[in-house]
Amino acid sequence: MNTDRAMNTVARDPDEAVTAAAGAVAGWAGAAPRERGRALETVADALEAEREELVALADSETHLGTARLTGELKRTAFQLRFFAEELREGRFLDVRIDHADPQWPTGPRPELRRFRTAIGPVLVFGASNFPFAFSVAGGDTASALAAGCPVVVKAHPGHPGLSRRTAEIVGAALSKAGAPDSVFGLVEGERAGVDALRHPLLRAAAFTGSERGGLALARIAAERPEPVPFYGELGSVNPVVVTPAAARARGAEIAEGYVGSLTQGAGQFCTNPGLLFVPADGPVDEIVRRLRAAPAAPMLGDWISDAYVAGADRLAALPASSRLVWPKDGASAAPRLLGMDLADFAGDVRVAATECFGPLGLVVTYERLADVAAVIASLPGQLTASLHGEPEEGDALTELTAALAERSGRVLWNQWPTGVSVTHAMQHGSPFPATTAPTTTSVGTAAIERFLRPVAYQAWPQDLLPPALRDGNPWGVPQRIDGRLTP
Amino acid sequence: MNTDRAMNTVARDPDEAVTAAAGAVAGWAGAAPRERGRALETVADALEAEREELVALADSETHLGTARLTGELKRTAFQLRFFAEELREGRFLDVRIDHADPQWPTGPRPELRRFRTAIGPVLVFGASNFPFAFSVAGGDTASALAAGCPVVVKAHPGHPGLSRRTAEIVGAALSKAGAPDSVFGLVEGERAGVDALRHPLLRAAAFTGSERGGLALARIAAERPEPVPFYGELGSVNPVVVTPAAARARGAEIAEGYVGSLTQGAGQFCTNPGLLFVPADGPVDEIVRRLRAAPAAPMLGDWISDAYVAGADRLAALPASSRLVWPKDGASAAPRLLGMDLADFAGDVRVAATECFGPLGLVVTYERLADVAAVIASLPGQLTASLHGEPEEGDALTELTAALAERSGRVLWNQWPTGVSVTHAMQHGSPFPATTAPTTTSVGTAAIERFLRPVAYQAWPQDLLPPALRDGNPWGVPQRIDGRLTP
Fold it and tell me: Would the CB atoms of B226 and A432 count as touching at under 8 Å?
């Protein structure tokens, strides 16, 4: 299908979509946060009201199964409602009011009132592997709308029908809730996505997908006459380190957990644990045995399984790697396991730690746990890093803890990285290449911060101030006044 | 002077400096914030103890005068102490603790503890025009050290002696306060700066200076194997709009204020009001008269005045511009004023709104105030934007207020943009090209956020957690627990 020509009543011309979105900024960003919250809740209700139809449509386009898709839709509705709560709380505005102070140590201080307001129209690139939660009505859209930003979504071509239907529901629900026209739009096709990204009125973009695609778009965002923030969530191998004590105490359990996490959803998660460090006498045989028994699950599409097979073959071609689990049919998307020792891995980290999206694991065996921290420290940035240890190891794990936390956004103790809970304290973002913006998250309530820009008003008249900054605090939001937070 | 070879006991090899800084991360970022605060106060005390020597040295290298430089040193010490206060308050850590919750709507929630920790070693490029406040011990250094990041400063060649002496004092004070060795270092010369920026262990960089220099460095930061955040504060023309009512009521006063702000410090401020919109029947003659009477002040150096004269000649060559104030000696760094009407300006905004660092003003005359907002909306990003109006104009200024706030980080009512107070609510950052990171500020307590990176710990053992995340809260910092802020 030539998606560039597949325009219908839902998808729009990119210039028209971004221009219309820019026209909606004043009304949407200027609305009270609790009103935006109500609109997000209306969207959540509308999506859940069409659950059966949406899940069936999603399954027909992605093969992810109705159980998983039903859960994903529930999560999508939940995160819209969770942002609505955050909007009622109001702390995201970071309101600061400094009254004029003629005695200020560096000279008379003018009256200054600062808050974080919507950055402007945001372009969201839908992901293939989460047709609900990271797509048209997903986390990027929810957090950008919550911030007060109109959103234009570029639909992922892997689920075009679902994207259009979701966009219809979102648009209708926002209208029903009284949101400005054009606060939400959809575009289709690679060219339309690039045109929207280059549009002079666009102010930020968010992307979840491959490193290759994300970097190409990041470059376009950076080379605009006015570059804009580009929040890309790219690839990650999510290292897991098993200590000798844990391997002795719970080897079989760890093997079972690893294989379950590696093969869940055919390995099509950005948090898939593709890299495992175990003692040379650890449970490698048990992992091999269990992974051989794991069935091949259908992947999202041929373009994904072809890339998986090619990536696996590239890693398997590394001279120091051995094939521990490998399908007889080289074109199969079945799980695969490679082995390598620590010294060989350390000698070629950048290549050996390249993500292969799908159910491929690389087991790195080590002789001394003390040698592992330095290798972890040399890894590229990771969404997650896990440690399986025993409580009594204590201080012996301090250096390893520091290395895991330095190279990743989320560290897990005796748990597996797949499954990203939507909470206040979730962090889904880290140094490059896992993301392009290491100071941000794309999951959890803090994701809203990506789409906010601070503005200070100096000695501005009360009746021309945004409500959040006025004396009397008509929106009832937390204000930090002369350094002290109230209420 | 070939600064690449001007190594002495203070300046270091860039590889050695960044490697040593990386070794100091654990000790510095892991210290209690109040301890880092005490170290910053020790630095402030040490700088003030050497005030006479430092001011004399600065004046000999920059010609900025002892009054201005004494004030700037006071401000520099103040902002170190102001960050120390912010560290004691602890909110910058943004601690969030979500306890495990088996009933969480999207499935069992794991225990998650998230905070913002030091991003790692930071490279600070000193500026020419603020030898104290935006240089070796300036705002970028203060906020990065406050965040827990070791700092390597690349000295500005415009004041090499002052840079070295300041670095000696800072280094000695930090050692005296018990900071880890190598938490602070200095490098000199363009090549050393670029080498430090490319160093694999570097994690962020901050720059204040020209658009040309900043963009070259930003590209180097982006093209590293692991790109790192680059916080560049580049150029700005800081538009000022005078309404017809204000021009009628206070024309002479506005002319006086404008000329004072334009020529202050020989116009060598990033907040210099280079662009003025006035009614066609506004106080242009008064501005011309006053500016003709303003003396030429010495600039920071020949490289600055040469660039000023060349930039002024480029703007004067625009066919639609007229020379309202121009020195007979074309090579003089004396103040200059150009005039243009709104339609001509709107037809060539990108060129006409280019910053010319120094005391050059471009006066744009308009017939109808209603036409100005659209032209403001088409400007590139600005550090500040000012409006001189009368209170009774009220709603008539809504659209203009929105346009000024959309294109800048700080809007001022009936005040002048030069002079940037260090406060909680100050914002010094905005869309490109005024800065490369529109969601951040380089002045005020929020500047610390640039150098923090969130990390979440999932189900991590208490004794291996950073103190800020532990039950019992040994650092006594605000913690947001299950969504509720305590204390």
Answer: yes
